[in-house]
Amino acid sequence: MRLGIDIDGTVTCPSSLIPHINRAFNSQLTLNDIKEYDLTKALPEIDPGTFSKWFESTEAEIYEASPMNDEADAVLKQLQPSHELIYISARGTEHHHLTKEWFHRHDIHFDQIILTGSHNKLKAVTDNQIDLFLEDKHDNAVDIHEDTGIPVLLFDAPYNRQPHPEGVIRIHSWHEAKFYIQQFEKKLSSQR
Fold first, then answer.
1. pLDDT by residue (tens digit) across 63-78?
2. How many CB atoms lie within 10 A of CB 64?
3. Is 154 exposed, middle or buried, given 0-12, 13-18 or 19+ CB atoms closer than 10 A?
4. Handedness of CA 55, 60, 61, 64 (dihedral sign)
5. R_g (Cα) of the chain, nearest Å
6. Extended strands (E) in the chain
7. What whole-number distance in Å separates Cα of residue 17 and Cα of residue 177?
């Protein structure tokens, strides 16, 4: 099975950005304060342009320092022998080398790393014939499912709790992701 996997907030901890934001803007945000994917909504006193410039100047440092999401490494190592792991991220292509280095440093196998430079991952999902996708951004999860018909596992976070169609399945852990992947595999093999 070909698994499409987002990186930030999925393989990495969804709160990875928060310590950097708190340091830079002298704030005390927690993950629960982030109710929308647009982080500037949690910092109304900060001009969005200022935040954007800060993020661009700090992006590489944030990616390099991002901690692994709980259980991601163990589950990905269990999935790797029998699945093709294709990481599809909105990161810009200029971060390809440091992204690969992060995977090597954390000893996480990848078959491909595709950096789209935008949140629109549909072309990469279609071109790579992904069977199931793992994501944390609500809009991406819904778009991928509705445009391709494949199931999408949506990692629960305070910023993605909007309603979603049936083919988008909200999960709370990597072990739960593994369970759904195994269920989908059984369904696929019974249809062959």
1. 999 999 999 999 999 9
2. 13
3. buried
4. positive
5. 17
6. 2-5, 84-89, 112-115, 132-135, 152-155, 168-171
7. 23
Q: State the Cα–Cα distance between residues 170 and 160, nearest whole angstrom.
A: 10
Half-sphere exposure of 92 (CA within 13 A, CB side): 5
Interatomic CA distance for residues 181 and 32, integer angstroms: 28
Contact by Cβ (8 Å): 131, 83? no
**pLDDT per position as a tens digit, 126-183:** 999 999 999 999 999 999 999 999 999 999 999 999 999 999 999 999 999 999 999 9
Token pair for 32: 């629960």
CA dist 68 and 91 (Å) reads 17
Q: In sequence order, which residues have a C-beta less than 8 Å from that of residue 98 and are 6 or more positions away?
A: 60, 63, 64
End-to-end CA distance of the chain: 13
> Is the overall model pTM greater than 0.85, yes or no?
yes
